[in-house]
Amino acid sequence: MKMENRVDQKNQYADDEIDLGEVFLVIWSKRLRIVFCIILFSAIGFLVAKSQPDIYQASALVQLEERGTGIELPVELLALGGSSGNRSATEIEILKSRTVALEAVQELQLFIEATPLRIPILSNILGNLNIPHSNAAWLEPYSWENEAIEVGLLRVPEAWVGLPLIVVKTSENTFSVELPDGTVRSGTVGNPIEDGAETFNLRIDRLVGPDRRQFSVTYNDPLEVATELAEDLGVSEVGRQSSILRLTYRHSVRENSAEILDAILGAYVRQNVQRGSAAAEKSIAFIEERLPSAEEQVNAAQTALNTYQRSVASVDLTLETEQVLSAAAALEAQLNELDLQQAQLLLEVTPNHPSYKRLEENRTILQEQLERIREQTQDLPEQQLEVFNFSRDLQVAQEIYQSLLQRRQELQVARASTIGNIRVIDSALALSEPVAPATSRIVLLSAVLGLVAAVSTIFIGKFLSRSIGSVQDIEKSGVTVLGTVAISKYSARINNKAKKLPILAVENPKDLSVESLRSLRTSLHFAMIDARSKSIAITSALPNTGKSFISVNLATVIAQSGMKVVVVDADLRRGVQRKYFNCAANSNGLTEILANDAELDAAIQKGPIDNLYYIPAGKVPPNPSELLMRGVFQDIVGKLTTEFEYVIFDTPPIGLVSDAAIISKYVGASLIVARHLVTSQSEFESAIKAMERSGEKFSGAILNAFKPEGSEGKYGYY
Known about the structure:
By secondary structure, the protein is α/β, with parallel strands linked by helices. It contains 24 helices and 20 strands.
């Protein structure tokens, strides 16, 4: 059992190797088509690469730092920033925002699009291949060389936004411009074109190119341009959590790629600084609102103290009372500081924020301490108590006022010293070589695509057509292959529609096809030993398989071996054997013999070599099948087999008419011809079934026009 399993495995491996060999043979047979497809696709890929403009890439590097200022802000305010978290992702989204892009668009006036007029695709191909400009009149407006235009000023009505203005160079420093409303204005390089309403202004600072060259100038919507710019900007973090961002931008002009990226960087840095000073701005505005009332409170407290002291005799406070007064004033100042911090905090958060609640807890503690001090002063004499209260109010008001002044000064310093938390490590730099299109890569991928397309079409076509490609394909239908006739390059060059056709076995006896026919002759000799006669009917499934070629050349090689043979053109409808034997179309033949209008011996003609004879088809009858069904045909077969050693009938295709099936009843053998890689499997099987319906069977098959390199079977090599 184990031995049998090993044998089965070996057979399976052998079958696999055969399958791979068949695939290789199919590909090798179509190598010219595959090479053509590869070259064609590579050429198309090359043209596609050259049809695209060169793209240059600029890159820059920035670092995200911790924000710092010249002063220490309150802990509660600093806590608002939260943890850094995924800060890089946040900054990437800010960099790619329309706000940053719009500032760069406005700075460089990128909403003004000014380019030479170009032929789509073709201009890029001609320019990249350095093909000089033609003087043809229809090509004069278009550019693909070194034409250039620079627009310094452009203002258009809202209705003209997005519509091109066609500028035509008329001389060295003059031009004309066709406006969207159809009017044409003239101008000079460096001088603006204006209208009275100031809705249209145009100043061209530079215009390079020959006369009559055209340029397109368009005022685009800045917001749309900013949106496209933000989408084209590439931003990524270098490494993981490195806080270093790499910026990339691509443009068809090398200098513009770096200039645009620098403008984006500048706008981003400025907005970063503005974000850093925003909190200080809010706090300064809040303090500015509080200062007037604080100053009024100081003046009011001073006036109240002076008034009371004048109304009574001067009262001095004891040292202990002054200490209590200082402590109370300090607590009042701390409470006021908490009020200030809470007010600043409310600019950013709601009262439910943890930082705000923490300040509320501190307020409660300070108020409890202040209440205890007030209880201590209740035992003081009445006048000292009043002086204590007025002095406390004055001292608290002064400290609050001084605290506000100091805080305003600190915030002003913080605002002035804010430098942002972005450090530009590498400014924008454009590569000297374009990054796209990658011509070599495109051509290589196109070649691979061509290879895949060619191989796919070969196997798909083969799968759909299922043409006979090997001896095994014929034998699957149950018919024995008696011979394989190689294709003849000599015969392939001959026009089958010519009035005269050469017999290959006579004209070129050393041809490989003739050698194949000699092998077929030998096979027939042994195959027909037990046949009732040496008469053979040769047919095919459909026309153009070479059955007439096989019939005449097989008869010739038999005659060359010394045996007497006659070829009968039994295709009474479209017989072509007369072309091989140079016989007139109106010669008496099989039709006349069957109709008893001519004698058999009189219709037999001698061929170009000894032992080879021929009977033409004769005139085309109205009823070929009925003629063949007469008993006369059986008598003809009997007389010919008596006089000749071999009789070969060239019959019509059995897939079209029943003549071959009728003739097969009276001959010794019936052969069917299949053309290599032309006759389909279904056509061949239909022909076999047509023969079987008549009660006969094919004695064998002939594989004609065999191409050794196109075979997929075991015996593909001839």
